[in-house]
Amino acid sequence: MSTRKSTVAVSAIAASLLLALGACAPDPEANPTTGTGGSAAPTGEVKAGCEDYAVYGDLSGKTVSVYTSIVEVEQADQEESYDQFEECTGATIEYEGSREFEAQLPIRIEAGNAPDIAYLPQPGLLKTLVTNYPGKVIPASEGTAANVDKFFSPSWKDYGTVDDTFYAAPLGANMKSFVWYNPSLFKDKGYAIPTTWDEMLTLTDKITADFSGTDTKAWCAGIESGDATGWPATDWVEDVMLRTAGPEVYDQWVSHDIPFNDPQVVAALDAVGDILKDPTRVNGGFGDVKTIATQAWNSAGTPVLPAAEGETPKCVLHRAANFYQTNWPTGTTVAEDGDVFAFYLPGKTADDKPVLGGGEFVAAFRDAPEVAAFQAFLASDTWANAKAKATEGGGWVSANSGLDVNNLATDFDKLAASVLGDKNSVIRFDASDLMPAEVGAGSFWREMVKFFAEDKSSQDVADAIEKTWP
């Protein structure tokens, strides 16, 4: 899912996506807790193809457990990206993906059964774990810190830092400000890609009018995600906050310099409701507005796909992040002339380009050379390019400056890179991932479910969330 957020300067991610750096082969005798992922020349014989892995040393017989919210279909690509590390170091990586990750990780830590490594989808969760379980999260290894300093902007390191101690290195980066659509339908109907928010609302009304009297709606949505149900709706609110209130107010909202029930936040909730709580505009393919609360997020866009001959798709637009690309059914062509493609969720004007981003952060819970080595590997350019090559279906990018964009699988991934690289883009990390976990991964999720399932008002939702702020 990888679903979740801070203040990021556009140059940080743009440069990191567009700059391709190669790693030199390091010293095979280097201590894996202090290796830099490719700064030293090799000394001694190294197995062919393992030059970039020699820094991690011989880890034969060692096992590293990984716990994460990244599940199928993305899990297979993750596991494949570790193959060379396992082959060259002798280590075994035991991967466990769970849809109940956010709820289960604290329970496992409390029970003394923490994983060696966890991929945290929220910086706010990192802060909560460090605060609530002193000493359980291990400060990042020297090699991990060196790789992050080399391959990531300082902002990304800040996200993994709590009280001036660096704990968690960035893994993947997400761009959430996309709207998926059916290119052939757009062509047949003469629909133009909107370049402003008002144009998008005009398009929404045009679609609604064109399909009046049918089951087809302009939008489809779903926010069910197991114990994390509600997070896709928070992404909607965050994207809209950036467009209606602006990035400076967004930052104040994240840091609680303004309360959660500030009128500007309520206005953003209203703007979301104007689209997603209007029964004439949603929920194509699924039912009424209430179905948004129970429809699984990873299949919510399915009605956008081309319909059977003589029929029309049940919905035309679906807002979802770049990683949604991996959730289309096998055989779906993601391209400008394919079954589905996406456009940037527009801002107020064509030059106004706010971008909602997210990512995961690699935290360690066991102080051991093999754990430190794997954490450092995940922060290296070697892993970023291995992951890009393993993700043959697309849907993944990274803020690692050593990522060669030519290794990205699809035109859509390169589209994400182009938006992130646009000098006019103003990027902000997913707000709920930066907020305290009891809000960002708690009341915000729960209240957005009530927003749809119970038709709870924007003001009541905002008031209820504000009351939970610690």
TrEMBL record:
Keyword Signal: yes
Residues spanning the signal sequence: 1-25
Alphabetical UniProt keywords: Signal, Transport
Annotated family: Belongs to the bacterial solute-binding protein 1 family.
PANTHER family (UniProt xref): ARABINOSE-BINDING PROTEIN-RELATED, OSMOPROTECTIVE COMPOUNDS-BINDING PROTEIN GGTB
Name this polypeptide is given: Carbohydrate ABC transporter substrate-binding protein
Organism: Flavimobilis rhizosphaerae
Organism lineage: Bacteria, Bacillati, Actinomycetota, Actinomycetes, Micrococcales
